[in-house]
Write a structure and sequence with these properties.
Layout (H helix, E strand, L loop, with lengths): L15 H30 L4 H37 L3 H37 L6 H12 L2 H16 L4 H23 L9 H25 L15 H33 L3 H17 L1 H19 L3 H28 L1 H8 L4 H14 L3 H16 L3 H26 L5 H24 L12 H6 L3 H5 L1
Helix pairs in contact: 1-6, 1-7, 1-10, 2-3, 2-4, 2-5, 2-8, 2-9, 2-10, 3-4, 3-5, 3-8, 4-7, 5-7, 6-7, 8-9, 8-15, 9-13, 10-11, 10-14, 11-14, 12-13, 13-16, 14-15, 14-16, 15-16
Length: 473
């Protein structure tokens, strides 16, 4: 007889702020550790010089785009698990988790094959110069072959988050990040029988540790003591449920992909000003991405709590949770923006040594972009609340508006038609963050964004498609 999943804390009762913070801080720290893969890579690659940094920078948005395509479905898995967990439908929690993993794995394999063969064409499209083309191609092809592991661990984190278990993924991240820090110099520079692979070595170290993360995650899910109990029989395709996951996840996938495509376009825009500006953008955008991790963590916690309360048929508490999350996110990012502004120089120094021009440009970029971090928190939290009630379409619209209506047109105009030059790209972050946060805030406070998303999260047609042994249990 399979083990019964251990009881999880009931996040649909008790003090809201306490529940939010209890769930948010491990997510934030876990995301910092997950981003730590990129930081560790950047630390070691930065020792190879500005060209190596630029090679990674031009490849990063492409990899981010591919991960975004799969991450949307992990959002769907998390929301459906959370809603059913809040409704105390444990069998459907397990069933959703199994089918979400199947869907994610198939998608990852398809993207891996396609991206591998398209790699050179992608780099030409991105405007990679001949001085960085070959190392960039090697780097991103290795990363592409790790997409299945990357997707798998993203889904594992999302499923665990849906049942309120956020510490186990944190512990796995902590161990594998330490291993990645050891493997990076080994594969980049070589040692003994291990040949030095240069930039591609950092990607190799990353996918090895990600593979170990997936193995650990599957062991947790199959063991069944952390809120979800998987079985190999549960991986048989349930087309009705996978269709529901796909429909809910597709807008989130488009949402995240639009963000990634926006970063790719901005990278191409920066590349047009030369390798030094591209390296500047690569360093600055990484620091800003790190800085908004608290907003992303609070948004994910908000989404989970809202979804659980929707599943428990307690919409007023779900809305109160979103209100608390907005206040916490704005305040946290406001404080952090001041810290980032003051610490810009040592932060840039962590990523690059020996190039004064790129270093000075990067400090300027970070200080400009940090001015609007608190507004990022508003948009992220509102999107998290939308996703929690199953309204992934509205979250998608907010992202597309912020990137394609505000940021890219402003970046292009300021950089090509004003005296700001490439610095117009930096100022586009401020304009976009402020503009989309105002729209998100108005939509949240005035719109009926939650009114039509309160039905049973799976619906009778999916419940009817559940495995017969589960319905008979």
């Amino acid at each position: 007889m399979p083990p019964t999943p251990a009881a999880r804390p009931n996040l649909t009762q008790g003090p809201i702020l306490q529940s939010l913070l209890k769930l948010a801080w491990p997510i934030v720290f876990g995301n910092v550790l997950q981003t730590g893969y990129q930081l560790v890579d950047a630390f070691w690659v930065g020792r190879l010089g500005a060209k190596a940094v630029a090679a990674v920078a031009v490849s990063f948005p492409v990899n981010f785009l591919l991960i975004a395509l799969g991450s949307g479905f992990s959002v769907a898995g998390s929301v459906l698990v959370a809603q059913n967990f809040g409704a105390r439908h444990q069998k459907m929690v397990n069933h959703v988790a199994s089918q979400a993993l199947v869907l994610e794995t198939v998608l990852a394999l398809l993207l891996t094959v396609g991206a591998h063969f398209a790699s050179p064409y992608i780099l030409h499209l991105m405007g990679a110069g001949p001085d960085i083309f070959e190392p960039a191609n090697q780097f991103q092809r290795v990363l592409f072959w790790g997409l299945t592991f990357n997707f798998g661990f993203l889904m594992f984190q999302a499923l665990m988050r849906g049942v309120g278990e956020v510490k186990i993924p944190l512990y796995i991240n902590l161990v594998t990040l330490g291993l990645n820090f050891v493997l990076d110099p080994l594969f980049i520079y070589g040692w003994g029988p291990v040949p030095g692979l240069g930039v591609a070595g950092s990607a190799m170290a990353t996918i090895i540790t990600q593979a170990l993360s997936v193995v650990a995650g599957l062991a947790v899910l199959l063991r069944g003591r952390s809120g979800i109990q998987l079985s190999f029989a549960g991986f048989r395709p349930d087309w009705a449920l996978m269709g529901r996951v796909f429909r809910l996840g597709a807008p989130s996938s488009v949402d995240l992909s639009a963000r990634a495509l926006g970063l790719s376009v901005l990278t191409t825009l920066a590349a047009g000003f030369g390798t030094s500006v591209l390296a500047t953008y690569g360093i600055g955008s990484r620091i800003i991405a790190l800085a908004i991790i608290p907003a992303l963590g609070i948004s994910l916690a908000c989404s989970t709590l809202v979804a659980q309360n929707v599943g428990a048929r307690n919409l007023p508490r779900a809305l109160q949770t979103a209100n608390y999350a907005l206040g916490v996110s704005f305040t946290t990012l406001l404080v952090l923006s001041g810290i980032i502004w003051l610490a810009a120089r040592p932060l840039v120094g962590f990523f690059l040594k020996g190039d004064p021009l790129v270093s000075e440009q990067s400090v300027e970029f970070v200080r400009i972009a940090s001015l609007s971090l608190c507004f990022t928190g508003v948009q992220q939290t509102v999107s998290g609340a939308f996703r929690g009630v199953g309204n992934t379409l509205s979250a998608m619209v907010l992202t597309i508006t912020g990137i394609w209506v505000f940021q890219f047109p402003v970046a292009w105009y300021l950089s090509h038609h004003t005296d700001l030059g490439f610095r117009g790209i930096w100022w586009s972050f401020v304009v976009a963050n402020v503009g989309i946060s105002l729209i998100a805030g108005l939509w949240y406070w005035k719109g009926n964004w939650h009114g039509q998303h309160q039905a049973d999260p799976l619906g009778p047609q999916v419940a009817a498609a559940a495995p017969q042994e589960e319905k008979a249990a």
